[in-house]
Write a structure and sequence with these properties.
The protein is an alpha/beta fold and about 290 residues long. The chain contains twelve helices and twelve strands. The protein has three domains: about 80 residues, Orthogonal Bundle (Arc Repressor Mutant, subunit A), CATH 1.10.10; about 100 residues, D-Maltodextrin-Binding Protein, domain 2; about 90 residues, Periplasmic binding protein-like II (D-Maltodextrin-Binding Protein, domain 2), CATH 3.40.190.
């Protein structure tokens, strides 16, 4: 038996006509008929009854179709199993804050799954620090390295911390160019777990200011600043990419904020984790797009 004849038999069984099956297979009607006749001769039984409406499966043909379909499925599975395994295949769980998650998505995070189609990226967005050593995540973006025997840290960027406000707010209240000129302005202040940030403490200590909005959600704080609620402290890497915000000045006394990618030693050895880490490093080190504030 010529195994390729089974492929032709299945195509005819599905299409119902020699011509239609030939178009699907890319061969002419005569070749389809000849190969089908060869298969029937090797089996010793007719598989089709020839009618005016095309090819109709005989009782034996129906059973043969079911067997051939299973053989075709097995052949496809064999090809799939024998294909080279993508070294970047696998799941990578990335832990970031709830604010950085939409920022990374907006700046090209998902393009890695176009380059590596078998890589599955899960973004775990929360302000709670996940335990990498306990396996809660494979990779984390942090502002401190947290070095240890079981952890690996890689610096992927640094950015000054500056004050930002919307154009609408600045048109209404004026644009301060120094800390002294903040008097009389409204501030957008982080609270709760975000209140410990150096820029949050610096802003909260400004005398003669008022509170325009406060929240423990960085996305909410940014939206409030965009809406004109007041002046917000933000890392410049982020602020310069936001066309709705205008940079005022760097916060004095606060050095650049470093960003670190942290993973367990075991996870750091996995190719998909390394691929995501390299991709994040490119995103975080890339310049702001043209036209950004």
């Amino acid at each position: 038996m010529n195994w390729d004849d089974l492929r032709i038999f299945l195509a005819v069984a599905k299409a119902g006509r020699l011509e239609a099956a030939g178009k699907v297979l890319g061969i002419d009607r005569t070749t389809v008929g000849r190969r089908l006749a060869s298969l029937e001769a090797s089996l010793g039984v007719p598989l089709f009854a020839r009618t005016r409406d095309g090819q109709r499966l005989t009782t034996t043909g129906v059973r043969a179709r079911d067997h051939a379909a299973r053989m075709d499925a097995a052949a496809r599975a064999l090809v799939a199993d024998a294909a080279p395994v993508d070294q970047f295949a696998g799941v990578v769980r990335l832990a970031v804050t709830d604010a950085f998650a939409p920022f990374l998505v907006a700046n090209g995070l998902l393009s890695i799954q176009v380059t590596h189609r078998q890589l599955r990226l899960i973004v775990l967005a929360a302000n709670r620090r996940l335990d990498l050593e306990a396996g809660e995540a494979d990779l984390a973006l942090r502002v401190d390295p947290i070095r240890g025997a079981a952890l690996r840290a890689r610096r992927v960027g640094g950015s000054a911390i500056a004050l930002y406000a919307s154009r609408e707010y600045l048109d209404r209240a004026g644009a301060p160019r120094s800390p002294a000129q903040l008097r009389g302005h409204a501030l957008v202040l982080p609270t709760s777990e975000l209140a410990h940030l150096p820029e949050a403490r610096w802003l909260a200590a400004r005398k003669g200011t008022s509170i325009g909005f406060e929240s423990n959600s960085m996305p909410a704080l940014i939206e409030a600043a965009r809406a004109g609620a007041g002046i917000l402290a933000l890392v410049s890497m982020w602020g310069r990419r936001d066309p709705c915000l205008v940079r005022l000045f760097d916060i004095p006394g606060l050095g650049p904020r470093s960003l670190w990618l942290v993973s367990s030693a075991e996870a750091a050895r996995r190719p998909p984790v390394r691929a995501v880490a390299d991709h994040l490093a490119r995103i975080l080190s890339s310049p702001a797009p043209a036209g950004g504030a």
